[in-house]
Each structure stands twice: as C-alpha cells, then as structure tokens.
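Two proteins, back to back. First:
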Amino acid sequence: MSSFALHLLRHGEPEGAEALIGRTDAPPKAAGISVCVDQARGLEAAALIASDLSRAQLAGEAISRATDLPLSVDPRWRELDFGAWDGMAPADIDNAALARFWNDPDAHAPPHGECWSALVHRVSAAIADLAPCPTLIVTHGGAMRAALAVLCGFDVRQAWAFDLPYGALLSLRVWPGANPAAQITGLRP
C-alpha cells in the first residue's frame, strides 16, 4: 500500500495552560487558534480531523473555514486523562507522585486517570481508521506522542523527549497496514 502524509497539529494555547489539562475542556485563546490556522496554511490535506475538546475542535473549525475542508471530530484524539490531577497546577500535586507518573506513566497513572498504554491504544485505533490520504489532525501533545509510539516504535521516554509546544506541527509519512510505520518529515514550532 502506498504511503500518505499525516500532519499532527497541537492546539494553540488554551486558558489555564499552566495546569494539567487532559479531559478538562479548557477554551482556546484567540491567538492560539490563529497560530493553528497559520500552521495549516499551505499543507496539502484531503482530510481534516480534530479532537472533540474545544481547544482542538475550535481550531479545527477555523482551519475548516480557511481551507474549505470538512471537519470530522474524533474523541480518540483527546489528551491523556489526568484523572484527579486534571485542571491542577503541577506545583499543587505531590512531587513524588508526579515524578513516579513522569518516570513510568503506565505503572503510575494519575489517580482515576488514564495510563499511557490506554492512550496509545486509543490513538492506535484512530490511526487504523484513517483513510490513506493526506490528513491534518488537530490534537494534543499526549496524543501526538502516542502516535509517535504507534507509528515510529518510540518507547515512552523517547516519545516524551519531543518538545511539542502549543501550535507545534509534526509531519509524518505513514505506511498503513496491520503494522503501520512512519517517518518524521518535519517538526515546526
């Protein structure tokens, strides 16, 4: 099967950006939406998908208006669910518990939150359902890292080593199939 371009765009800066905002539906700042629209300019995409959280979905809607691409919304592209820590500033979380989570987010998920492997599983299912055409997905930093784990075989430390600031665009060349693979073709903040 032939390859296709996959562009993963992290939503722009949301309200409350200093906190862990996974499932929290923090609204995007207007400047954050503008950054996403600017990043999408000139991309050759035949499909546009966004997470259902407003910080990604509203950017997707703005890109849709600017490009005339219809937007599909897929909740599998949501951020990691930080459970009881969702919406909290890292300084307000027990340092030892937070360190255990960052060191091994599968074995030490946040209380009532999602473990790393669950995020990877749901992103893997979303990737498997992609049509093999140039695609732009407006999503979240954790979901982008999970896609790197699925498509490039990165372990959790490698995936989290990528700096993906708000509005970052990660481009890949994807070879779909039972065991999809990808090559990173670009990363721009």
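And the second protein:
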Amino acid sequence: MEDAVSVRDLVVERGGRPVLRSISCAVPRGAVTGLLGPSGSGKTTLMRAIVGVQTITSGTVTVLGRPAGAPELRRRVGYLTQAPSVYADLTVRENARYFAALHGRGHVEADRAVTDVGLGAAAGQLVGTLSGGQRSRASLACALVGDPELVILDEPTVGQDPVLRADLWAQFHAMAAAGTTLLVSSHVMDEAARCDRLLLIREGRLVADDTPDAVRAATGVEDLETAFLRLIRANEAGRDGAAGAEKS
C-alpha cells in the first residue's frame, strides 16, 4: 500500500532564506507519525506544504495519491492549525455542528466529536469564553468531525494538562487503529515515544525518519531526547566535514 504522504526533495524559501532544505520523507497509512523539532525548525511549513497551502520553491508533495492541495482532498484531509480556527461568537456545539454540516454530517457526529476531545461539559459555552487549551480542543473537534482519512495536527497538546494529553494520545491511537493516518507535530520530545514513526526536523533539515525503537538502536540510548541530540550532533558533524572537504 502506498504511503499516505510522500514528500520528495521539498525546498521552501521565504524572503530568499531557506526554510525547508530538500526534505524527503513519507507518512505511512494507518499510523501516528510524529513530526518533532524545536520551534522555528520548519514543522509548520512542512505541514502547510502537505495541506497544500504553502508556496514551494521546488520538489513534490503527494497526498493520498494526489498532488497536495488538489480540490478532491478537501474532504479527505483534516487540519488543525496552531491558532484556534473556530468562531468565538458561537458555542463549541454550534461550531462543531457547522463544520459537520460542511462535510455532510449530522448533529450526532458533531456532538460525538465534542465529547471525544473532552469538551462535553463545555459544549454550550461560547468559544470566546474558553481557555486557550479548550479553544484548541474545540478546533480539534471541528477538524475531526468530517472523519478524514488523513489528520494533520500542529501542536495539538500545547496548553493541555497531563491527563488530557494522555487522553488525546489514546484517541489518536484509536483513530489510527481504525485506519486513520495522523501526522502530529510537537516540540516536546517526551511525546516522541507515543508515536509509531518519527520525523525529526531541525533548521529545515530532516535529521531522522524512523521508528522510536530504530532511533534508540541507532544511537545506543533508550532516552529519545538523548538519542535526538546524538543524531543532531552527528548530522552537524557530517555537514561540517563535507564543508571542509569542499574547501580543501
């Protein structure tokens, strides 16, 4: 089975400055793939390219067998941005039902999505009165209500308490077990262990594309944060060595 997402030699420049530097990676179907890296590393830019709303300089992005951004993908891809993308003057329930209607879904599906993200008790509240973490969950409900094949989540657990974070990750894995593909970004390295596959990005470069166990085996350490540091240093040393060879 082909991958849900295939990225080949992707380059994105902004203001003449490289943001993504020849990225090639894949997101397997029916799994939770983590996109990890520090703030400013290019995670959001890569996600925007996959959704099809990012201008790219060169390379290709294929999503569910179609070019990224193709009109027929709109109902097949769910996207949660870092900034809440819901209407502040509507209640949580009204937002979910509005987005459900756009996907041809009913009130039952909308109300279930609200409950699934832990907002059942706040369903009647105006979004404008919610906390930042609650607004993010309201946006998540709206992204999931159409039952998309591919779900792209940009920092979905930021601002959530530990119990809710665990509940959300359990929901993500339940969705993957049912066949949904998820790409989840985070700058919190302890979330790496919750993923089936990892993409580690730093300064616009892909440092790792493997399973958590393979990353541990390659670096000889169990702690994934330590493993990532070793990979980053090895990657930087390799670039420095290549640069020195070119000069000589």
